[in-house]
Structure formats: C-alpha cells, structure tokens
C-alpha cells in the first residue's frame, strides 16, 4: 500500500511493560511500529530516507507511562502526510515526521501483537505483545471482527483466543491510614519479603518489622520517589545499613 492518510485505532490492556502492538514495513525503508517500552508507548515512523543520509526520515515519539497496569487504554493514530496526531487516553500529541516524504509505503504484511522475524537486529530484540486488544481499526477496516470471522486473506493467526482472561492476583489498596499486620516467624535466621507496588506518592512506609529479642528492625520506605531499605542491628559495631535505589 502507498497511503497519504492513515487512521489506526485500538484499545489494549496488559501487565507487561514491553511488547509490539503494531508493525508494518516496506522495501523503500518505510516502517511504522507502535510498541510498549518500559510501560510507555513508543511510535517509530519513517516515511522514507535516502542512502546518502541527506534525507533522514526516522521519527520516534514517546507518550504515557505506567501502561502495564492491566487497565484498558485507547490509542488513535491519525496521519496526513507528515502531520501526526497521536492520542492516548484522550491526551493528544501533535508532531511532524522528519524527512521530506509524505507517503507511507508498506509492501509487506501488517502485524498486530508482534512483528515477523526478518533477520534484522531490531526484529529479534523486540517482544511480542502479551495481553488483550479490542476494537482494532485500520483505515476503516475492523481488524478484530475480520480476524474473528477469518476474513483476513492472507493471514497467519497464531494462538489467539477471542476472550480476555483476567489475572488471578488480588491487589490490596492502602489509603495512607490503613495497614496490614501479619504474625512474624520467631527463631528464623532468614528474613525475606517480596511484593509489587504502585503509587503516585513520593513518600511512604512500605514494610516495617522488629527483630525478636530486641535485636533491631528492618524498614522499607519510599523517600522522594526512591525506595530505601534500612536495617538496624543492635549487637554489632556497624549497626545500621542503608540502601537506596
């Protein structure tokens, strides 16, 4: 295809921070890739470059954050020549692509949820998307409906299920005055704790525990957006260890 205008829209939800959502490329060096990187949305687009390097078409735009929260997020990409509107959850970002070309030439297949292995270094370092998508619309074509009715020709539909499985994890919400207290394990030499957390607050206490027999305590907190671990031991000379990340 050689297009001057494109409109691509879809909704997704995932708990993974990396994954290719959409990809297409052509023989002239054109490509468009929409992917998650570190839970942010990245759009890579090239409407054409030349071998001399005087025309450099690669354009990369990043938007959003914490998109691996397993909530639905909506994306709309509207392109008219070099002018792009990228909308994520109703927040629109406008930009112009680099280079001098207006048309997007896509000679190979367009893929959703991953990209085919092409032998290029960029293809084998990218992860496929893991999660749910719905309402995939590409230039007026309802891709979700066509895939479900097997009307896409040619197509290679992998291990797809037309349902969205919810994760089995049970989150706990703390409102800054609540806490969860669990019994300790006396006469244990090992203290081990692991958890996932998410917060908008830059400060807060995550974990606190006293050691038995008055031997000290351990504290894990957020201080100015950094996680800190403080270990106090009463019976040794260097009685305090502080780790921050």
UniProtKB/TrEMBL annotation:
PROSITE patterns: LAM_G_DOMAIN (PS50025). Residues 1-164 form the Laminin G domain. It holds the Pfam family Laminin_G_2. Gene3D superfamilies: 2.60.120.200. It comes from the Eukaryota. SUPFAM superfamilies: Concanavalin A-like lectins/glucanases. CDD domains: LamG (cd00110). PANTHER family: CONTACTIN-ASSOCIATED PROTEIN-LIKE 2, PIKACHURIN-LIKE PROTEIN. This is CNTP2 protein.
């Amino acid at each position: 295809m050689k297009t001057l205008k494109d409109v691509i829209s879809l909704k997704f939800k995932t708990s993974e921070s990396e994954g290719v959502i959409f990809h297409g490329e052509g023989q002239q060096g054109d490509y468009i890739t929409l992917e998650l990187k570190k839970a942010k949305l990245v759009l890579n687009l090239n409407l054409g470059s030349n071998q001399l390097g005087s025309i450099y078409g690669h354009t990369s735009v990043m938007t959003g954050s914490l998109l691996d929260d397993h909530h639905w997020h909506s994306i709309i990409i509207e392109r008219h020549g070099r002018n792009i509107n990228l909308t994520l959850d109703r927040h629109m970002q406008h930009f112009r692509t680099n280079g001098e070309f207006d048309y997007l030439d896509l000679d190979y297949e367009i893929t959703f949820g991953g990209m085919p292995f092409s032998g290029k270094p960029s293809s084998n370092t990218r992860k496929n998307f893991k999660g749910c998508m719905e309402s995939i619309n590409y230039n007026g074509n309802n891709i979700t409906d066509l895939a479900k009715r097997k009307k896409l020709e040619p197509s290679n539909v992998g291990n797809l299920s037309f349902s969205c499985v919810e994760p089995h994890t049970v989150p706990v919400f703390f409102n800054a005055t609540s806490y969860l207290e669990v019994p300790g394990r006396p006469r244990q030499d090992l203290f081990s704790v692991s958890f996932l957390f998410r917060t908008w607050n830059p400060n807060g206490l995550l974990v606190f525990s006293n050691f038995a027999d008055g031997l000290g305590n351990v504290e894990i907190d957020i201080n100015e957006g950094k996680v800190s671990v403080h270990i106090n031991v009463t019976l040794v000379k260097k009685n305090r260890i502080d780790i921050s990340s």
